[in-house]
Design a protein that fits this description.
Blueprint (H helix, E strand, L loop, with lengths): L50 H29 L21 E3 L7 E3 L11 E6 L11 E13 L9 E8 L10 E4 L6 H7 L7 E6 L19 E12 L7 E3 L9 E6 L3 E5 L10 E8 L9 E10 L5 E4 H4 L3 E4 L7 H7 L7 E6 L21 E10 L3
Antiparallel strand pairs: 1-2, 3-7, 4-5, 4-6, 4-8, 7-8, 9-12, 10-11, 12-16, 13-14, 13-15, 13-17, 16-17
Length: 393
């Protein structure tokens, strides 16, 4: 007979007065459970179990004890509101940890708080304290945003190794009123973290982005005073968003005049095709609505969001196009310098409209023209404009 199969005597154990906590349970605290069936004066009696059977019974006993401890702990945690915290632990340990906050109304300068006892994680973290209900943003879409951003780094003070420092680097809210809202095309911002963090957000949202160095400004950050290991925190208010293929939508208004340019179908990435006739241009400025939108009419105090292309009547050459640049442009309609006819011609037009502007030199580039664009001082110009919206005030 092997040693494991030989019967063994059993020792009498004293029951413990207090059940140990689950985290303190170690097998040496438990004794084998072959409890003697007689009085202590009789001495130990054979249990009739082999060593292997005794071992299995010991393990079963340990399991029962652990289950009992867990059950008691669960009951305590349930009665305390599902918090498995001893009564002696302060309640503040169950509160959320420090976090970056930006409070205030959407579109207004936020109050930004970056706790000193919170350090950069080295990862892209995105939170949305205000969730908008507008258009969902995709790569290639152009958003109208206000933003502020901060340098954020671990403290270099040896006495404060667990703290961080931060400094505001720029804020569009601190610019003149007409320059606070900026167009931002997702996928072209040159900050990978900003592109990734805003993609999938919705217009009308406020987004807080912690951007690590590898997805930040790179070497350009040195011009802002950033060190190579610094993170940046952006707070971005997305006021509006326009898909990359946005165009005029409304009621077509046929133009039947053989002496005026014809406008064809939209060519992908190029906008509508415009053909200049072999005729003299109109002597006076003309505004023709080709598609009448359904939105509110623009005013002289608006900043219009548009797609456009410009051509020279003389040779039909195209000299500019936002469609080919891949993003809409914004123009204040109360501008009094430069292309005054362009700005006046868009006033009073409904959002969603497509408008053709025929501008003589006096309403266009003037007597000096624009040599860089090939425009002479005597050239008439033609603009085709899709009015996509206006910048929120």
């Amino acid at each position: 007979m092997s040693e494991d199969d030989k019967p063994r005597g059993e020792r009498t154990v004293k029951a413990k007065a207090k059940l140990p906590n689950a985290k303190n349970i170690r097998s040496p605290e438990f004794t084998p459970h072959g409890i003697s069936g007689g009085s202590r004066s009789r001495g130990p009696r054979p249990s009739g179990k082999t060593a292997a059977q005794a071992k299995r019974q010991r393990m079963a006993g340990i399991s029962v004890a652990v289950v009992a401890v867990v059950a008691v702990a669960w009951a305590i945690s349930y009665t305390q509101g599902h918090r498995f915290l001893p009564d002696s632990v302060p309640d503040y340990l169950s509160r959320p940890g420090p976090e970056i906050k930006a409070t205030g109304a959407l579109g207004s300068a936020p109050k930004v708080s970056i706790p000193k006892n919170l350090q950069p994680t080295g990862r892209l973290n995105v939170t949305t304290p205000i969730k908008g209900t507008g258009t969902k943003i995709a790569n290639g879409d152009t958003t109208l945003v206000k933003f502020t951003f901060y340098q954020w780094a671990k403290s270099t003070d040896p006495d404060k190794p667990d703290e961080s420092t931060n400094k505001k680097l720029s804020s569009s809210w601190e610019r003149p009123a007409g320059q606070q809202v900026l167009p931002m095309t997702i996928g072209k911002t040159e900050l990978k973290g900003l592109d990734k963090g805003l993609a999938g957000q919705t217009a009308g949202s406020r987004v807080i982005l912690e951007i690590p160095p590898k997805e930040g400004f790179g070497e350009q950050g040195q011009q802002l005073g950033l060190q190579s290991g610094d993170s940046v925190v952006f707070v971005v208010d997305v006021l509006a968003s326009y898909p990359k293929n946005a165009e005029a939508k409304g009621t077509p208004k046929p133009l039947d005049d053989k002496d005026l340019p014809t406008v064809g179908a939209v060519e992908p990435g190029k906008g509508p095709k415009v053909t200049i006739p072999k005729a003299d241009p109109p002597e006076k400025m003309q505004v023709k609505t080709l598609i009448e939108g359904t939105g509110p009419a623009t005013t002289k105090d608006d900043v219009a969001v548009v797609h456009y292309k410009g051509l020279i009547w003389r040779d039909g050459k195209q000299f500019d196009s936002s469609w080919e640049k891949g993003e809409p442009a914004t123009f204040p309609l109360n501008a009094t310098e430069g292309m005054t006819g362009f700005f006046k011609g868009l006033q009073g037009q409904k959002i969603g409209s497509r408008v053709m502007l025929l501008l003589p030199p006096g309403d266009g580039y003037g007597k000096e023209g624009n040599p860089q664009a090939g425009i002479k001082g005597t050239d008439h110009t033609v603009f085709l404009v899709d009015i996509l919206g206006t910048v929120p005030k």
